[in-house]
Design goal:
By secondary structure, the chain is α+β, with helices and mostly antiparallel strands. A hairpin with a 4-residue loop joins strand 4 and strand 5. It has 20 helices and 12 strands. The two termini are 29 Å apart. Strands 1, 2, 6, 7 and 8 form a 5-stranded antiparallel β-sheet that branches. Strands 3-5-4 form a 3-stranded antiparallel β-sheet. A two-stranded antiparallel ribbon has the order 9-10.
């Protein structure tokens, strides 16, 4: 955020007039306008006798058709969202804004006061807020329906509703899939988080400028490391695991007693087998293909971290996918997603060579360590060089750092793109075949799981009703409750935090990081710290 000349992370930002506002780079805001159940249309595309690969293609084609039809008809961003692991499909339509201007942002240290120790904890005293203004056709957007700001705030014991778009929960998974998550996936992910946290922390400690460059990535890594630590702790808790066993056992028993759904019990075995196949495919899929890793800031598959490889792959695949029918494309390249793809691809977000080299060196080293230095693909990727030397060669030689170059290449055909001989694009092409094969394997097994989960969902709806909410999917959810304090370790925790508590917490830690206050906050305090 900002630049070396204008360090808004350190100093904060406030636009005194509209002319002082700063345009946010490649930031897209979406306002949900409607939700429509399209389950029959999606599931109706699956025909008896289809292989899992054929079913996956048919399902994706139906989803692509629904999204394109909606986008063409309304002009709204249109996403088909999978609910209940395949038990239901809803079409979400969004009003999309991509001209977004920053009006106010506090200093980073105020937004993240207390740092990682206080993150995900309460009470918390950070001022984690930004204010933006959205524009439409060059003018401030006129929003008809909006939530009004209450300057008085809520009262103790008042009923409140909180909106948000929670990322991902897995409450509806079977025990077999949760066991795989506990024993394989979460340890793998946490190993990645800890590795990257060390890398980012060491880089950030060298200078404030380094810390500014890495801030978003390090924040994302630490957030997710703590989150997934909690997931693993929960799944390793015998009481929690017993409760999960009891819940699944109760549903299975009910299914077994119902003649209409007794055959549904096979779904559990289908999921277990499909998950085992996904686990076999996981190393190649995770390192070569995975588009959106679970950690913020690390774009691209695990073996090739950084923005430059991300752009190279987007250019390569945009060219390859464009010639296919819309329903056969990877979702990122469907017609309904074109505007979001181009906003990301043509971003003017600054790219720093030293930071790209750092991340790519580490991810190439990780790749070589995981597969072995003598692995044929590893040797091909490294091209007879060390991970660092190869990273320097790739980052220094590529032209995709320039947004204008990316925009020019984006419209070219495959032959022209290949003739450009850009080293980063050539690297993306080099690993594309095995990466796509890993994607195909994953999709086929995921399709088996979707169908099995849909069978379980039907039985659950019939037995338990539809009152159980689906797992989180990065879509709008509402939570509700009353504002109340609580007791912890014999101490009464108040319902509200205030600035007095902020200064008190800073004093308790001698104003040392991460509990240090910016100078202007110290100057404005009437008491000394």
């Amino acid at each position: 955020m900002g630049s070396a000349e204008h360090n808004y992370l350190r100093d904060g930002f406030y636009a005194k007039t509209q002319a002082d506002e700063i345009k946010s780079t490649d930031l897209e805001l979406n306002v949900l306008m409607s939700i429509e159940d399209v389950t029959p249309r999606v599931t109706g595309a699956l025909k008896p006798g289809m292989t899992s690969d054929q079913a996956s293609k048919a399902r994706n084609a139906a989803i692509a058709a629904i999204e394109k039809e909606s986008k063409d008809k309304t002009g709204l961003r249109s996403d088909v969202v999978t609910l209940y692991q395949g038990g239901a499909y809803h079409l979400y339509q969004y009003k999309r804004y991509d001209d977004v201007q920053l009006v106010f942002a506090p200093e980073q240290q105020m937004a993240f006061f207390g740092g990682d120790p206080d993150n995900f904890e309460y009470p918390r005293y950070d001022l984690d807020i930004c204010l933006f203004r959205v524009y439409e056709n060059g003018q401030p957007a006129k929003i008809e329906h909006f939530l009004k700001f209450n300057s008085n705030g809520p009262n103790d014991r008042e009923l409140i509703f909180v909106s948000g778009s929670p990322g991902k929960t897995d409450r509806q998974l079977t025990l077999a899939e949760m066991a795989d998550m506990r024993d394989r996936y979460l340890p793998y992910v946490l190993d990645m988080f800890y590795r990257r946290e060390v890398l980012e922390s060491a880089y950030s400690a060298r200078s404030f400028e380094n810390a500014r460059k890495a801030r978003e990535d390090l924040f994302g890594v630490q957030n997710n490391r703590k989150r997934y630590d909690g997931y693993l702790a929960g799944l390793l808790d015998p009481q929690i695991w017993s409760a999960l066993e009891a819940r699944e056992g109760k549903l299975r028993d009910a299914i077994r007693r119902d003649a209409k759904f007794k055959s549904t019990l096979s779904a559990y075995e289908r999921i277990k087998h499909a998950q085992a196949e996904i686990a076999k495919n996981a190393p190649v899929y995770n390192y070569l293909e995975q588009e959106r890793p679970v950690t913020v800031g690390y774009r691209g598959p695990r073996a090739f971290s950084g923005d430059l490889f991300k752009y190279a792959r987007l250019l390569l695949r945009a060219t390859d996918e464009r010639v296919k029918p819309n329903g056969e494309r990877i979702p990122t390249f469907r017609d309904s997603a074109r505007e979001s793809l181009e906003l990301e691809l043509f971003s003017n977000e600054p790219i720093y060579n030293d930071y790209e080299i750092l991340r790519l060196t580490d991810s190439l080293t990780d790749f070589a360590s995981a597969f072995g230095a003598d692995n044929p693909l590893v040797k091909k990727v490294l091209a007879g060089k060390s991970p660092h030397a190869r990273a320097v060669e790739l980052v220094s030689g590529t032209k995709v750092k320039d947004a204008a170059v990316r925009k020019d290449l984006y419209g070219k055909d495959a032959a022209t793109l290949q003739a450009a001989h850009d080293p980063m694009i050539d690297l993306a092409r080099m690993i594309d075949a095995p990466a796509r094969e890993a994607r195909k394997t994953y999709n086929a097994q995921d399709e088996i799981k979707k169908q099995a989960y849909a069978d379980i969902a039907k039985a659950r709806f019939a037995i338990e009703g539809a009152s159980g909410y689906p797992d989180a999917t990065f879509t709008l959810r509402l939570s509700y409750g009353t504002v109340r304090g609580y007791e912890q370790d014999g101490k009464q925790i108040p319902a509200f935090t205030d600035f007095a508590g902020l200064y008190q917490r800073a004093t308790e830690h001698d104003n040392r990081p991460p509990f240090d206050l910016p100078k202007r906050w110290l100057d404005k305090n009437r008491t000394s710290i």
